[in-house]
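Weekly modeling sync, notes
Attendees: S.R. (lead), two postdocs, one rotation student

Agenda item 3: backlog of single-chain predictions. S.R. asked that every request posted to the team notebook include the full sequence so nobody has to chase files. The rotation student volunteered to paste the first one in as an example of the format we agreed on. Action items at the bottom.

Example entry:
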Amino acid sequence: MMSNENNNENTSRPSTSSQPPIPPNTVFVGKKPVMSYAMSALIQLAQSGEITIKARGMVISNAVDVAEIVSKRLGNNAYEVKSVAIDTEKVGAPGEERNVSTIEIKLGRK
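Predicted structure, as returned to the notebook:
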């Protein structure tokens, strides 16, 4: 008979993912409604004072919307865009790589 410890083998192992850990105070924008990311960003800004909003591909415009909503509408003009960085990443298997645009927007207190 197998013990309960062996049944949960996959849950007790540390992650062996090749992706780097998510840095603190970072909001990754995806396909959810823009306001959910804006509220998350506002909560993190209230706690730390500076955040980074990241997006890539088709949702870059949503990341810009989040930054504008937080800095202009929700933040009562207490926050501003500190910097914007754009880049291109290669994704896909070797030989089938494609370029994907990325954006990184830093918001902080004025």
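Discussion: group reviewed the output briefly. The domain at 22-109 is CATH 3.30.110.20 (Translation Initiation Factor IF3).
Action items: rotation student to repeat for the remaining queue; S.R. to check formatting next week.
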